[in-house]
């Protein structure tokens, strides 16, 4: 039952009782580089590795490749929260944005800075907690956080910060895990009943940590997201449900795949606006 996720969790719990520090240690131990989680050395170091990483990022996230227009950020002040290895941040910078990337971990700041430098891209990269952004109010035209804010210990605090640093009329996009996804329920039941983790005190929420990245990995419904973002003064303009590139349920016919992903995929994407 041991795996890289469980080992990173144990390490974080041995080192501290601080909730956000546990989150940070988890991601320092297993930085997001799109390489196998079980690979000993997951760090990208050279220019060809960095360009492969951007390719993997777009190929691995088909919704983004098909729907998200990085060129719309040209000459705008953009912020990526939780930049990981910096693939999206490099795409923002390459498309002419005045870009800032932040992440909770030293590892991500280093990898993103190396990635930008290797490709001669200008951006600010800073270590920062999404729950306590250090930027003045109304600093950015667009805020982007792909697969990040559900990993923080207090997602609502992150949403408040997103709203605060966004200019009136500014836009944003967040992707978090979707509660009504097949993955959440099927993998959850497999863990609880198949692996017997229910007898060790796990529930549907906590068992996700056995097979999902992050010290925290919250899953949200669209209704919850609309309410939470609304309470922070952000108006959702569009919801999409999507999934990664790999086939969702292997035994089912391929033609069902897009439909399953569109309705019960694991990723829910909220695009929003801060009213002017
Ligand atoms: C799943 S990775 C996603 C990375 C990148 N957005 C991507 O799609 O490749 C989650 C990232 O969020 C960062 N993170 C988690 N909690 C954070 C917080 N409170 N503030 C800033 N970054 C955070 C982690 O360090 C990690 O780099």
Task: Please tell me about this protein's structure.
With 276 residues, the chain is an alpha/beta fold. The chain has a single domain (37-181, 219-273), classed as Vaccinia Virus protein VP39 (Rossmann fold, 3-Layer(aba) Sandwich), CATH 3.40.50. It is 38% helix and 19% strand. It contains ten helices and eight strands. Strands 1, 2, 3, 4, 5, 6, 7 and 8 form an eight-stranded mixed sheet that branches. The model has no long low-confidence stretch (mean pLDDT 95). The protein binds S-adenosylmethionine. S-adenosylmethionine binds at residues 23, 27, 32, 81-84, 87, 103-105, 108, 129-131, 146-148, 151-152, 213.
Q: Keywords, please?
A:
276 residues, alpha/beta, Rossmann fold, eight-stranded mixed beta sheet, 10 helices, 8 strands, 38% helix, binds S-adenosylmethionine
Supply the helix-strand structural class. alpha/beta
How many structural domains are formed by the residues?
A: 1
CATH topology: Rossmann fold
CATH superfamily: Vaccinia Virus protein VP39
Which percent range describes the beta-strand content?
15-25%
Number of strands: 8
Order of helices and strands: HHHHEHEHEEHEHEHEHE
CATH architecture call = 3-Layer(aba) Sandwich
Q: How many individual helices?
A: 10
Instruction: Return residue spans where pLDDT drops below 50 for at least 5 consecutive residues.
Output: none
Helix share bin: 25-40%
Largest sheet, in brief, is: 8 strands, mixed
Shape: globular
The level 1 CATH classification is: Alpha Beta
Instruction: Tell me the Rg in angstroms.
Output: 18 Å
